[in-house]
Amino acid sequence: MSGINPYRFEKIYADLVTKDGTVLILYLTWMDLAGLTFRQAAATIYERDGSREFRIGSHDHSKDVFGLGFNKAELNISLKSGSITVRYEHAISDDQLRFKIGSNLTYSCLVLKADCTAMLQVNGTTREFKGQGYVDDVTIDTPTRRLGLENLQWGRIHCEDTSVLFTRLLSKRYEPIQMLAMSTGYSEEVKVTERFEIEYSEDYSSLLIRSPLLPARELHVENRAILHEGSAIDKRHFPGFFERSLFSLITGSSYERRWLGTCKFGKQPAWVLHEQVAFGRKAQLVRSETEGWMI
């Protein structure tokens, strides 16, 4: 076993938001454990009427799925009774859109913004999704519970002309991570700053994002729907008891809320997909106390 990393986890997260507010979220994962590699994929569709469709699948992508360039790659997921294929055009990214937590966790935004088309084929029927897409990659070389993570705030905002990404990550062991990025049109220029603040309303029905990088220096977001609330290691994503127990042991406690909201850039409406995740003791607190979400 010499030279083999006993543990490594990598996850590609991809989302697509259509003009009418339908949301498609995909996960592709690789877990290396004691020389063995386990792959899994999942897809969730959040409809405008509040209903959702969740599917577990598989994939055979290598870890450099975007190695040929974002505008030449596609994601493919095999489902029990069909498949999903996602293609990207006019993709924008930037080497600034990455950070590390110590030497064990690396986050990279692979696609800040792209024109995205997804084809879902199930039981002989085909459904097409078109909208703005986003992709990121997270690689962790140690069990997540060892990183001392406390809270994550993440979100992305897309309208026809502008895209904004924000991330704030707090850990007991490392310095806080703050990053807000903005791209206008299909320009390759991406502006990045650490100077921003996020303030949620008391009932979490809205949030205010302040930064000198933003138009009018702030954005007001109204939350329209809670897409997910609960543990990230739940029965839907990990239906098998063994794998669910294994991931819970590796990652520790976590509790997530993900919202879909709206805001405006000038007169342009925009969809906002954002989330908060609490880890460890913080996760146990927020299950019963709303104030546990406050950072």
Tell me what you see in this structure.
With 295 residues, the protein is mainly β. The protein has one domain. The chain starts with 6 loop residues before the first strand and ends in a 9-residue tail after the last helix.
- Total number of domains: 1
Number of helices: 2
Shape annotation: globular
Structural class: mainly beta
Strand order of the largest sheet: 13-12-11-10-18-17-16-15-14
**Could you give the count of β-strands?**
18
Q: Fraction of residues in helices? A: under 10%
Gist of the model:
The protein is mainly beta and 295 residues long. It has helices at residues 241-251, 280-286; strands spanning 7-18, 23-33, 36-46, 52-58, 74-79, 82-92, 98-101, 105-122, 125-140, 149-158, 162-171, 177-184, 191-193, 197-200, 206-210, 218-230, 254-265, 268-279.
Ordered list of secondary-structure elements with their pairings:
Blueprint: E1 7-18, E2 23-33, E3 36-46, E4 52-58, E5 74-79, E6 82-92, E7 98-101, E8 105-122, E9 125-140, E10 149-158, E11 162-171, E12 177-184, E13 191-193, E14 197-200, E15 206-210, E16 218-230, H1 241-251, E17 254-265, E18 268-279, H2 280-286
Antiparallel strand pairs: 1-2, 1-9, 2-3, 3-4, 4-5, 5-6, 6-8, 7-8, 8-9, 10-11, 10-18, 11-12, 12-13, 14-15, 15-16, 16-17, 17-18
